[in-house]
Protein backbone atom coordinates (compact mmCIF):
# COMPACT_ATOMS: atom_id res chain seq x y z
CA UNK A 1 0.00 0.00 0.00
CA UNK A 2 1.68 3.22 -1.08
CA UNK A 3 -0.73 5.63 0.62
CA UNK A 4 -0.36 5.31 4.41
CA UNK A 5 -3.85 6.57 5.19
CA UNK A 6 -7.08 4.87 6.00
CA UNK A 7 -10.58 6.28 5.76
CA UNK A 8 -12.51 5.50 8.91
CA UNK A 9 -16.17 6.05 9.68
CA UNK A 10 -16.80 5.63 13.41
CA UNK A 11 -19.58 6.05 15.92
CA UNK A 12 -22.26 6.80 13.36
CA UNK A 13 -20.35 9.71 11.83
CA UNK A 14 -21.40 10.45 8.27
CA UNK A 15 -18.17 12.20 7.30
CA UNK A 16 -15.19 9.88 7.02
CA UNK A 17 -12.07 10.70 8.97
CA UNK A 18 -8.77 10.26 7.21
CA UNK A 19 -5.95 9.24 9.52
CA UNK A 20 -2.34 8.30 8.77
CA UNK A 21 -1.57 4.70 9.60
CA UNK A 22 1.66 3.24 10.78
CA UNK A 23 3.06 1.65 7.67
CA UNK A 24 4.18 -1.95 7.69
CA UNK A 25 7.77 -0.71 7.62
CA UNK A 26 7.23 1.40 10.77
CA UNK A 27 5.62 -1.57 12.53
CA UNK A 28 8.54 -3.83 11.61
CA UNK A 29 11.06 -1.24 12.81
CA UNK A 30 9.22 -0.85 16.11
CA UNK A 31 9.05 -4.63 16.51
CA UNK A 32 12.73 -5.02 15.69
CA UNK A 33 13.89 -2.32 18.12
CA UNK A 34 11.26 -2.29 20.86
CA UNK A 35 11.52 -5.80 22.25
CA UNK A 36 15.32 -5.88 22.61
CA UNK A 37 15.37 -2.45 24.30
CA UNK A 38 12.39 -3.28 26.50
CA UNK A 39 13.92 -6.55 27.68
CA UNK A 40 17.27 -4.84 28.27
CA UNK A 41 15.83 -2.09 30.51
CA UNK A 42 12.70 -3.74 31.93
CA UNK A 43 14.14 -4.04 35.44
CA UNK A 44 14.95 -0.31 35.52
CA UNK A 45 11.60 1.10 34.38
CA UNK A 46 8.37 0.73 36.36
CA UNK A 47 6.20 1.04 33.25
CA UNK A 48 7.63 -1.96 31.35
CA UNK A 49 4.40 -3.95 31.68
CA UNK A 50 2.32 -1.06 30.30
CA UNK A 51 4.77 -0.63 27.44
CA UNK A 52 4.59 -4.33 26.52
CA UNK A 53 0.77 -4.37 26.84
CA UNK A 54 0.58 -1.32 24.56
CA UNK A 55 2.75 -3.17 22.05
CA UNK A 56 0.50 -6.23 22.04
CA UNK A 57 -2.58 -4.01 21.74
CA UNK A 58 -1.04 -2.20 18.75
CA UNK A 59 -0.42 -5.54 17.04
CA UNK A 60 -3.94 -6.84 17.68
CA UNK A 61 -5.97 -6.87 14.45
CA UNK A 62 -9.10 -5.98 16.48
CA UNK A 63 -7.56 -2.70 17.66
CA UNK A 64 -8.94 0.31 15.73
CA UNK A 65 -6.56 2.12 13.36
CA UNK A 66 -6.61 5.40 15.30
CA UNK A 67 -5.64 3.57 18.48
CA UNK A 68 -2.81 1.75 16.71
CA UNK A 69 -1.52 5.07 15.44
CA UNK A 70 -1.36 6.55 18.96
CA UNK A 71 0.25 3.43 20.41
CA UNK A 72 2.86 3.05 17.67
CA UNK A 73 3.75 6.74 18.08
CA UNK A 74 4.34 6.23 21.83
CA UNK A 75 6.24 2.99 21.25
CA UNK A 76 8.29 4.64 18.53
CA UNK A 77 9.27 7.44 20.91
CA UNK A 78 10.53 4.84 23.38
CA UNK A 79 12.90 3.33 20.81
CA UNK A 80 14.16 6.64 19.40
CA UNK A 81 17.87 7.00 20.08
CA UNK A 82 17.44 10.76 20.52
CA UNK A 83 14.76 12.11 22.82
CA UNK A 84 14.08 14.99 25.20
CA UNK A 85 15.87 13.39 28.16
CA UNK A 86 18.64 10.92 27.22
CA UNK A 87 17.89 7.44 28.56
CA UNK A 88 21.41 7.10 30.00
CA UNK A 89 20.78 9.75 32.68
CA UNK A 90 20.30 7.90 35.96
CA UNK A 91 16.92 8.54 37.52
CA UNK A 92 15.69 10.87 34.78
CA UNK A 93 16.39 9.07 31.54
CA UNK A 94 13.03 7.41 31.08
CA UNK A 95 10.78 10.11 32.54
CA UNK A 96 9.98 11.56 29.12
CA UNK A 97 9.26 8.07 27.76
CA UNK A 98 6.96 7.39 30.72
CA UNK A 99 5.17 10.69 30.13
CA UNK A 100 4.59 9.95 26.45
CA UNK A 101 3.32 6.44 27.27
CA UNK A 102 1.07 7.70 30.09
CA UNK A 103 -0.43 10.29 27.76
CA UNK A 104 -1.06 7.67 25.07
CA UNK A 105 -2.63 5.31 27.61
CA UNK A 106 -4.79 8.13 28.91
CA UNK A 107 -6.12 8.61 25.40
CA UNK A 108 -6.52 5.00 24.22
CA UNK A 109 -5.81 2.84 27.29
CA UNK A 110 -9.35 1.48 27.37
CA UNK A 111 -8.44 -0.60 24.31
CA UNK A 112 -5.75 -2.52 26.17
CA UNK A 113 -7.46 -5.77 27.09
CA UNK A 114 -6.60 -8.40 29.69
CA UNK A 115 -5.10 -10.72 27.04
CA UNK A 116 -2.68 -7.92 26.07
CA UNK A 117 -1.62 -7.58 29.71
CA UNK A 118 -1.26 -11.36 30.06
CA UNK A 119 0.99 -11.52 26.99
CA UNK A 120 3.04 -8.62 28.40
CA UNK A 121 3.47 -10.35 31.76
CA UNK A 122 4.53 -13.55 29.99
CA UNK A 123 7.09 -11.66 27.88
CA UNK A 124 8.58 -9.96 30.94
CA UNK A 125 8.50 -13.07 33.11
CA UNK A 126 6.09 -11.48 35.60
CA UNK A 127 3.66 -13.53 37.71
CA UNK A 128 0.37 -14.29 35.98
CA UNK A 129 -2.85 -13.08 37.56
CA UNK A 130 -5.07 -15.86 38.81
CA UNK A 131 -8.20 -16.41 36.71
CA UNK A 132 -11.48 -15.76 38.45
Task: Please outline the helices and strands.
Elements: E1 5-8, E2 17-20, H1 24-41, H2 48-59, H3 65-79, H4 95-108, H5 114-124
Antiparallel strand pairs: 1-2
Task: Give a description of the structure.
- The protein has 132 residues and is mainly α.
- The protein is 53% helix and 6% strand.
- It has helices spanning 24-41, 48-59, 65-79, 95-108, 114-124, and strands spanning 5-8, 17-20.
- The longest helix is centred in the N-terminal third of the chain and has 18 residues, at 24-41.
- The protein is globular and about 35 Å long.
- Mean pLDDT is 76; it is low at 1-9.
Distance N terminus to C terminus? 43 Å
Indicate the radius of gyration in whole angstroms.
16 Å
Please state roughly what percent of the residues sit in beta strands, choosing from under 5%, 5-15%, 15-25%, 25-35%, 35-45% or over 45%.
Answer: 5-15%
Strand order of the largest sheet: 1-2
Number of domains: 1
Helix content: 40-55%
State the main characteristics:
132 residues, mainly alpha, two-stranded antiparallel sheet, 6% strand, globular, 2 strands
Amino acid sequence: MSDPTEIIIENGETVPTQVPLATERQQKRTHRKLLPKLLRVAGRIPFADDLAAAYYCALDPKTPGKVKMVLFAALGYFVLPIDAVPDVLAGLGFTDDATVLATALGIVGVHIQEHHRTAAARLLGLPQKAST
